[in-house]
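Researcher: Structure prediction, please.
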Amino acid sequence: GSYTSRFAQSELALATKSLDCGNQLMNKDLYNALKAEAHPEIRLELRQVTRKGEVKNESDWYPLEAKALLTIAGVTQEISLDALSK
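Model: Predicted structure follows.
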């Protein structure tokens, strides 16, 4: 069956101004949209990962669903991400 792993204090912080598309004007618009001065970091906090289905062979890939809290421009939302693992 499936199993779930829960996480505490597993957070990734990314400096908002480290995002760079190579165009100074577009970067400025991006930083304004992300409110980079007031919120200099984008944060991703992993909450849990659930394996979907059974692993029949350890060398096979199997699907996972990760739930995390994503904070951008001071707004936090829970998100789900699909992934594969071995």
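Model: The beta strands are 3-6, 11-15, 41-51, 62-72, 75-85.
Researcher: Thanks, that helps.
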